[in-house]
Amino acid sequence: EYEIVLSGVSDTSLEKNISLASPTKVELTCKLDENSNLKNPQVTWKRGSETISHTSKTQNSWTIQLTISESSQLGSYSCILKGEKEVSATFHLHVPKIEGKEKRIITYEGDIAVMVCKTEYNPKAWTWYMTNGTELVPINTFLHTDKFQIQRHSDSENRLKILKLTKEDHGVYWCEAVFELGSSKGSFELKVLSITAPLKPFIAVVAEVAILVTTIVLYELYSKKNRKGGEREFDQIEQL
């Protein structure tokens, strides 16, 4: 049973996320705080924009009972309480999400990249994809044993290891956790840098220093030449 308590004072809209991995029965309850000044409200339940009826009611709470047997029954269920003011509560029913999705990984040629996907519940299966244009292509480790390794760290955690990185490995990779009620995906953007990339700032500094030193040396040579020329001219004048 999942419950949201509305005070009707400071909160006008509250939300709760509910993860469901397999078919189950769910009770959703909207409860009005006993100290609320919202008296005898008119209550409406909705699934998305469709109005549905509540299955039970007490003095300050309203409940719907759901049997979630397929993915089409997931979504948002809301109760709206109308009185002197309007307050609402929304329950978001969804399959377990991938933790830490949409990560960016930066590494170098010749290194190894490791991508980790975790979920709150144990999925039935895991699948990894690489992006080819706009399509997702399943990664087959049997065909690419020298490039990809998929490791099951635990029932709720799966890892993709990419070996001997090259610039061609740059791109977006996806993991998919499959549950009885649907699936969730997480993405990783892999950026592979040249092995000389970390040296570029150092090379730039060295080049600037070299230019500065060369400029100073040329200036010193030019100044010394002018001083010698001036001394010779002074000696000639003394002789005259």
Automatic annotation (TrEMBL):
InterPro entries: CD47_Vset (IPR013270), Ig-like_dom (IPR007110), Ig-like_dom_sf (IPR036179), Ig-like_fold (IPR013783), Ig_I-set (IPR013098), Ig_sub (IPR003599). GO terms for cellular component: membrane. Coiled coil: none annotated. Residues 26-90, 96-194 form the Ig-like domain. GO terms for biological process: cell-cell adhesion. Keywords: Disulfide bond, Membrane, Repeat, Transmembrane, Transmembrane helix. SUPFAM superfamilies: Immunoglobulin. SMART domains: IG (SM00409). Signal peptide: none annotated. The chain crosses the membrane at residues 202-222. It comes from the Eukaryota. It holds the Pfam family V-set_CD47. PANTHER family: CONTACTIN (PTHR44170:SF6), PROTEIN SIDEKICK (PTHR44170). This is EMB protein. It comes from Cnemophilus loriae. The gene is Emb.
